[in-house]
Amino acid sequence: MKKSLYPMSLAACLLATGPAFGATLFSSDLTSGVDFTIVGTADSASTFGFDYSSVGIPQNTGSDTLALKLEANINTGAVNQIAAVTNQVFSGQYTVEFDMWLNYTGPLELGGTGSTEFGGGAIGHDGVTVAFDSGANLTFTGDAGSGTDLRAHENGTLQGLADGGFNPLLTGLNHPNIGGELGLFPATPAPAAQVALHPAQIEFTRAGAAGFAWRHWIIEVDGTAGTASFNVDGVDVVTLDANDGTGFSTSGGVGLIYADFFASIAGNPAVSFGLFDNLVVSDSGALVGDVNSDGFVGIDDLNIILGNWNQNVPPANPLADPSGDGFVGIDDLNQVLGNWNAGTPPTGGAAVPEPASLALVGVGAAAIMRRRR
Fold it and tell me: Would the N or C end of the chain have less CB density within 10 A of its end CB?
């Protein structure tokens, strides 16, 4: 059972809150596929909750070594692709974050047989169409072994330089390509524990190859502008514009994708896969703390929170629960106070207390809580 805040603690909180961030719309540690639909060709596979320590990969951020494992072109020697797409649909302005590890068959510098495969993320996916052919997506090869190691698609159509949007530091003369052009990803060896299990995993990756490290992805989606901006390890890679070129929908599911565009089968399938972990989708468009949606965070929003304090939703007003956890409490209060005075005050609205005056609100909150005892 959740504990309510004591009156004096609440007053203190009113004076010492940090900034609030966009509300979380969806999150998954990818140990279960209950919130996902798998779309892919026949020779592909997905394993939620795969223990990647079993192949010698170091622990990513988090409390375990479990992640989603995707594989493609396992046996047939043909083009294959797969995506795990959220059942939840997102629209408007939102941010997608996840971690990805690409593993491939060694030796690492040039890659072993069938080592070149792609992994990445998609937005606006319809959850039905095979991996790359829906929404906007970006993928990298793990080994930088393709003529086009960085690929962006709009509804399955590869986007070239003429379509614009690529970081010019990542583009070759004829196509987007990171292999050997920029040390976006430094050369790295396979983990020692993996080499012990699979001795062919020797040498280092080429500079610019995305494999053999946890890469952090951020996708910023603006449904109004019709854009999706992809950032990997702090580097802006490409911004795709639905109004320029093929076009795509910014509304849809979030997809984690893996593919092999070539006919060769990996020489060692045990080390040929992509891992995905820590998927989070957050609201980046709404004014955080504006619970009554009047474009301003102030006393009216605070009154809604305090008027429903310490109640479950329902019966409490759902507006009082911006954190979405079903309970009106400190998380909701922090969203309001962390963004106090943000936005434009409504015309004719009441005077807004200065931050130092918020201590007085604590007195009112304490009275409310005493009445609710």
Answer: N
pLDDT at residue 148 in the model: 84
Whether residue 121 contacts residue 255, with contact meaning beta carbons closer than 8 Å, is answered with yes
Are residues 72 and 162 in contact, defined by beta-carbon separation less than 8 angstroms? no
* Residues 184-222 pLDDT 10s: 788 899 999 999 999 999 999 988 889 999 999 999 999
Give per-residue burial for 345-358: e unless 16+ CB within 10 Å, then b: eeeeeeeebeeeeb
Whether the ω angle into residue 58 lies within 30 degrees of 0, i.e. cis, is no
> Distance (Å, rounded) from C-alpha 297 to C-alpha 333?
12
Q: For residue 236, what is the DSSP state?
A: E
Distance between CA atoms of residues 285 and 132, nearest Å: 26
pLDDT at 82: 97
Closest-CA residue to 148 (of 136, 134, 166, 131): 166
pLDDT in tens, 62-97: 889 999 999 999 999 999 999 999 999 999 999 999
**How far apart are the C-alpha atoms of 135 and 71, rounded to whole Å?**
21
Give the C-alpha separation, 267 to 264, whole Å: 9
Question: Residue 74, exposed/middle/buried by CB under 10 A (0-12, 13-18, 19+)?
Answer: middle
SS3 71: strand
CA distance 128 to 355: 50
Regarding whether 327 and 265 lie in a shared domain, the answer is: no
* Burial of residue 148, with CB atoms counted within 10 A of its CB: 0-12 exposed, 13-18 middle, 19 or more buried: middle
**CA–CA separation, 162 vs 145, rounded Å?**
23
Torsion of Cα atoms, 144 then 146 then 147 then 151, to 10° = -80
Last residue of a domain, one of 224, 251, 283: 283
**What's the number of domains the chain is made of?**
2
| pTM metric for this prediction | 0.74
Residues of the chain with pLDDT under 50: 1-21, 173-176, 178-181, 351, 355-373
How far is the C-alpha of 235 from the C-alpha of 256, rounded, in Å? 19
Residues 168 and 207: their CA atoms lie apart, in Å, by: 18
Enclosing domain of residue 361: 7-20+287-372
